[in-house]
Amino acid sequence: MIYTLPPLPYAWDALEPRISQETIEYHYGKHLQTYIDNLNDLIPGTPYEDMPLEGIVVSASGPVFNNAAQVWNHVFFFNTLSPAKKDMPLELKDYLIRDFGSVETFKEEFRKAAVSLFGSGWVWLAQDPEGRLHIIKESNAGNPLCRGLKPLMVMDVWEHAYYIDYRNRRAAFVDSCWDLIDWDIVTQRLDEPLPVEVSETVVIAEADRDAVTEAMAEAIIEDEADMQRYVCITCGWVYDPVEGDPEGGIAPGTPFSEIPEGWTCPACGVGKEYFEPER
Fold first, then answer.
1. What would the pLDDT profile of 5-64 be if each residue is shown by its tens digit?
2. How confident is the model at residue 177, as a pLDDT?
3. Phi (first) and psi of residue 17, to 5 degrees
4. Helix 103-116 vs helix 90-100: angle between axes, to the nearest 10 degrees?
5. 0.70 exceeded by the pTM?
6. What's the longest Cα–Cα distance across the chain?
7. ∠ CA(16), CA(21), CA(25), 5° rounding?
8. What is the pLDDT of residues 120-148, one digit of tens each?
9. Which are the contacts of 67, defined by CB distance < 8 A and separation ≥ 6?
10. How far apart, in Å, are the Cα atoms of 132 and each of 99, 100, 128, 198, 231?
């Protein structure tokens, strides 16, 4: 299966001034395209070659998961936005009032989660199998599908989502996005089936929505080791796996150990052998 860049449901300048055409050109046209290209390079000859994208997201790990999830997350994000301001349907309001107390409280909690998420990632509104709604913070390429939860809406809080328009003002970007959410689409997703089955569902305790099992904690420690930054000893340029090197064909989320041997420092041109772990 070959994945391609899907068409946007609106013009590239339609979200201005909240999200500029330049941001769409880089975020959608370049970053998303890089994830798609990387995924197409990674899956031939593997069990994921003919698997639907959702299936790859819930079953893969490492670079295949990172790129597949980032493709799914980005397409879902862009399809959640609308140039025309939409009023929230009563059905969705009722769910939010039931599970958060009020629509305003939901927005406050969601904003807090989006602004406070450390590093890069995504903040989701997701529905559990019992129908209750949760705000989920996911680092890097994380997706609620992996927890057996159904995504309803998301905000992308990777820096490349907002840095052109808002520089380091993530909160301003989050506040601006509220008027771009297509609440009709979010409400429609309430009645849609979970797009993929998972063998094990991670139950989220109401008392601690960020709690993880011991196995998940070990996986996080392992992931953090993979996310070690490396410094070029020739010029001092730092490779950060969180950001990757999209201009050099290295997608965000790629550990240094998995960069192809032919890759070179974008600042001075030396090879991987001239890099050492950042102290």
1. 999 999 999 999 999 999 999 999 999 999 999 999 999 999 999 999 999 999 999 999
2. 97
3. -90, 0
4. 70
5. yes
6. 60
7. 150
8. 999 999 999 999 999 999 999 999 999 99
9. 35, 36, 38, 39, 42, 141, 251, 253
10. 7, 10, 6, 18, 45
Q: Encoding tokens for residue 132?
A: 């209750």
CA 210, distance to chain mean position in Å, is 17
